[in-house]
Amino acid sequence: MRVAILVHEGFPDRAKTAVGILRYGDDEVVAVLDRTRAGERVRDHVPDVQDAPIVEGIDDVDEPLDALVVGIAPIGGGFDETWRPDVRAALERGADVVAGLHYFLADDDEFARLADEHGAELRDLRRPPDDLAVSDGRASEVDAEVVLTVGTDCSSGKMTTTFELAEAARERGVDAGVVPTGQTGIAIENYGIAVDRVVSDFAAGAVERMVEERAAEFDVLFVEGQGAVAHPAYSGVTTSVLHGAMPDRLVLCHAAGRDAVHGYEHVPIPPPGEYAALYESLVDPVAPAEVIAGSLNTQDLDADAAGDAVDEYAHAIDAPATDPVRFDASEILPAVLGAE
User: Fold this and answer.
1) Rounded to whole angstroms, what are the CA distances from 253 to 162, 218, 265?
2) Over the stretch 229-247, which tens digit does the pLDDT of each residue have?
């Protein structure tokens, strides 16, 4: 499928969904829409991902186009009205529009009318199923090993680590699957439930449902974590994923050099070792699990500093660690798979 990704004024630092699709998705990305970087290319900013031209708008994207993906999700998940002309033009061309916003495009009267007129589909990735239920507390009974990525903050590498570990496991012949819990993972896998949009009573149940479904297909599941348990805004979704998945093992994700919660700089991040113990104590009464490995995002460091930071991080959490993008996820895979 040929897709364009809309990320106006956000590429690459505020375009997590776009970068995830470029790195892990199967679709052909024919263009990235960012009016502030028109004329540049993806690999001018992000190496080792699918390359594509960066253009000013949808009118600069050649036919055919199967879908326009909104590849940015601002805090609160709102729709920026400056995106409307591109979404409108994509629908008029008969292209589907996919978005992971809390603002549902299918509920927008203009977009719904255009989609109907031109035979296009509006896919709101964050719209939850209608038949969710509370958790039965039975995910620990599935016939699969469950590994959950948890973080010290939002945007600390949980989604990236999940996909890197799954890919590394498959390369070793492991029958591994991903359980996506956020819009980016859902866009990549074409499966999943955005847990942050689910009514709180049903959030753990939504995760449990996905674990049970995917355990019937795979031997090892890598569950994408959300938020952070000491985050002042998003700790609720973190706990729902933690208790709903009932993981066998945890991988703690952290951004090197970050000592305060992003966007809440008055809230310090506890030391990694303390954070690991916090997760273990929180999950213990429901389904005991240990932090058996760490993932460190070192993108803001040079190579030498990155290696030192990973070593320090591993020592702090008393477990093997790596930067799965800069180095290799396979370095922690034996611990993750319970082989050491």
Assistant:
1) 10, 24, 19
2) 999 999 999 999 999 999 9
